[in-house]
Write a structure and sequence with these properties.
alpha+beta, 4-stranded mixed beta sheet, 11 helices
């Protein structure tokens, strides 16, 4: 039976031979075949520190092609266009320019026209947004410091437009305010504070659709009015109707907060009187 066991290559014996062959101008392949060394790691060790023969180095013409290919790629040419221009293979081109960004896809005249229209529209929208924001900022600065009387009048109008009101057929003189806008809630509470309504007389509860994150909504409103969520009244859940296409959905949907003032009949009557006085003054200005 033949002996298939091979002795490992003798590095010390092969090193001088490999160095001599390299200095004689042989390539790595020629040295490998001469010494029967088929292990690249060993061949690297044998040739370590020995200069590479000039004839084995890449020709300068190849470097020139590489730089031309990279410049054409920067100009937006495809592999096919570079190949036609330089006459080299796509595989070489791919290797040379793979770190450069891909050129934008070529567009037809119709696509170019649509793109131009869209860019003009986006520019117009940006200009309108800037103008809108500038007007809002100017208006914001025009308010200045809100006096007590100004807050008082604003609060009366706010309540009469958004708060519950007594009807001749259903007399309920209670002060209850319901709104989904947190800023309206903040302003309303500031108005109640101006009127001297103690926080102990306020009761809060949430109204929200049943498919919302109820716990998160309750915590949001509790944080807004600075109370513990456990002190909120029982949440009113609205039945979800799949046939109804609602816009108030998603993470920004928080339902409504109901703010009720206990023992509020006296306050309600005063609000109604304040409102009627404001209406009389408004009518006087129009006559």
């Amino acid at each position: 039976m033949p002996n298939t066991h091979r002795e490992p290559p003798d590095y010390e014996a092969l090193r001088p031979q490999a160095v001599a062959l390299r200095r004689a101008g042989l390539s790595r392949r020629q040295i490998r075949d001469r010494l029967h060394v088929h292990n690249n790691d060993l061949l690297n060790r044998l040739l370590e520190g020995v200069p590479v023969p000039e004839w084995t180095k890449r020709p300068n013409a190849k470097d020139d092609l590489r730089e031309k290919a990279r410049e054409l790629r920067r100009q937006g040419m495809t592999y096919d266009q570079i190949q036609v221009e330089l006459g080299c293979s796509k595989s070489s081109i791919s290797l040379w320019v793979r770190d450069l960004p891909k050129p934008a896809p070529r567009r037809t005249p119709a696509e170019q026209a649509r793109l131009a229209v869209r860019k003009r529209w986006e520019h117009e929208l940006a200009v309108r947004d800037e103008e809108r924001q500038r007007r809002k900022t100017t208006a914001h600065n025009e308010i200045g410091t809100l006096t007590d009387r100004e807050l008082f009048l604003v609060g009366v109008g706010l309540y009469w437009s958004e708060g519950t009101k007594s009807k001749p057929h259903a007399r309920r003189e209670t002060v209850t305010f319901i709104n989904s806008d947190p800023d309206m809630i903040v302003l309303y509470l500031a108005w109640l504070g101006l009127l001297g309504v103690e926080s102990e007389r306020l009761r809060f509860h949430v109204m929200v659709h049943e498919n919302a994150d109820v716990a998160a909504v309750e915590q949001y409103w509790a944080d807004l009015v600075r109370i513990d969520a456990s002190t909120l009244g029982k949440t009113t859940l609205k039945k979800h109707n799949p046939k109804t296409v609602r816009k108030n959905v998603g993470d920004g949907y928080r339902g409504c907060l109901v703010v009720k003032v206990l023992q509020g009949a006296d306050l309600y009557q005063r609000i109604e009187g304040w409102w009627s006085g404001m209406v009389v003054e408004a009518k006087r200005r129009t006559t």
